[in-house]
Design a protein that fits this description.
alpha+beta, Arc Repressor Mutant, subunit A, Muramoyl-pentapeptide Carboxypeptidase, domain 2, 3-stranded antiparallel β-sheet, 48% helix
Amino acid sequence: MSIQEQARALGDPTRHAIFRLVVESPTPASVGELTNRLGLNHNAVRQHLAKLVGAGLVLEERAAPTGPGRPRLVYSVDPAAESRWGVTGPYERLSSMLTEIIRTGESPVEIGRRVGRDEAAGLGDDPSAALERVMAHSGFEPTVNRQGDDVELLLHSCPFVNAAVADPDIICELHRGIAIGVAEAVGGIDIDDLVRADPRRAPCRLRAHLDPDQDVD
């Protein structure tokens, strides 16, 4: 979507307020949560969300089922809106992690683990879906292949191509750490490896396996 279309969608004060709540929510927001925060009726909030989705500002997905009935719809920021409209983009997040490496002296994997645990909070009990969501939020455009308990995410678009080619031991290890942190937070999955490739030519592969007996720390 064009910047002009997004600007028009955000020109409505109520719609802009809904967008800011979605941006600031640590987990995907439901219509009920947004309605309670704004004091509006469900239909009005749904209509505004539809406009935000249509403008490429917000993603609409179904939450993991938690009981009988249809899973609820939840809303998160569309990656296409990142680095615009006050939304932190991938490079800003990367710079924050790199600063943390310099400040603490910890390894990229350890910094990534903390970030992954934070980003996985509240993402439900489907470990492969949580892993896919976090890697999508980082800009990797992942697709998931599952064969039995084996899970492989193909990371089709590296948002840090030049940096990853120049120093994969930092950039790739940060993202392997994020995946490990997600797995630790949601439980039920172990990260086996991040198989690196030249991101200009082929997707990297994040390999994991499901472990239903594993408990969350």
